[in-house]
Amino acid sequence: MASRIEALRRVPIFAELGDDDLQCVADAVNEVEVPAGQLLVQPGAPGSGMFFIVEGTAVVETKHGEVELGPGQFFGELALMKPDAIRTARVRAGTPLRCLALDRASFRRLVATNPDVAAALIEVALGRLAENAGVDDG
Ligand code: CMP
Questions:
Q1: Does 73 contact ligand 1 (Cβ within 6 A)?
Q2: How many other CB atoms sit within 10 Å of the CB of residue 138?
Q3: Which tens digits make up the pLDDT trace of 73-93?
Q4: Confidence band (pLDDT; 50, 70, 90) for 63?
Q5: Are 83 and 64 in contact (CB under 8 A)?
Q6: pLDDT, mean over the chain
Q7: Which of 40, 57, 67 best tests ligand 1's pocket when mutated (most atoms within 8 Å of CB)?
Q8: The overall pTM is greater than 0.70
Q9: Residue nearest to atom 11 of ligand 1 (CA)
Q10: What is the CA(74)–ligand 1 centre distance, in A?
C-alpha cells in the first residue's frame, strides 16, 4: 500500500494538517483490505470506527439510491458523531477496496486537537444527513 501519509495527504479534510498531526493520524489507523462486494457497515448496528478510502470504491446504499465514494473520501463518521452511535446506511466495497480505519478513541483525539478537521468533518456529515433527510436547499 502507498505510504499511509501519502494516502492521508489525499484526504481533503486533512488538507490543513501539519506533518506531525498527520503522522499522529497515520500512527492511529489500521489498514483494511476487502474484496469487491464485501459489506463493511450494516445499518442499525453500533459503529466503532470510520474509514478513509485509499484505493477502490465503496458504495453507500441510502434511502434515495446508491452513492459511490472513492480515494480521499471517507465513510462511517456519522455513527461516531451521533449520540446513539448507530450506523445510518449499508456500505459495501464496489471494487477491491483498501481503507485506513480509525477507531472511536482516536477519532475523538483527532477532533479534539484539530478544530479545522472537526469543522470539515461536520460539514460533510451534515451534508450527508441533509441529503438523506431529503432536505433541498433550493
Ligand atoms: P455511518 O452512519 O456511521 O455508516 C454508514 C455511512 O454511510 C455513514 O456513516 C456515512 O459515512 C455514509 N453515508 C450515509 N449517507 C450518505 C450519503 N448521502 N452520501 C455519502 N455517504 C453517506
A1: no
A2: 2
A3: 999 999 999 999 999 999 999
A4: confident
A5: no
A6: 94
A7: 67
A8: yes
A9: 75
A10: 9
